[in-house]
Protein: Transcriptional regulator
Organism: Leptobacterium flavescens
Amino acid sequence: MKLPIPGQPVRGSKTGAPIMALLDLLGRSWAMGIVWHLYSGPSTFRKLQDYCESISPTTLNKRLKELKDSYLIERTVNGYALTEQGKELYELIEPLGSWAKIWAKNFK
């Protein structure tokens, strides 16, 4: 799967609307989990692998590359970390986590 780029066809959008490119990227296995985890601070590859439980090293490397190429994370001396854009993204999406907990009560 190639990197979703705004303005180019992506999953769910022939025109590559920016929101659709972002949702394509974040909808990939563990992409959102990596962003969520890194909001608490930098993490090494090994710690990310532990956090992501069953993720293979190949898939983790692929997600990290995609998130780096999308300017959401960067490699630092302390491991992988969110960029300023990555932090902004988390802060926009975090309220959905709270909303989802309320929504989930409908299924109990």
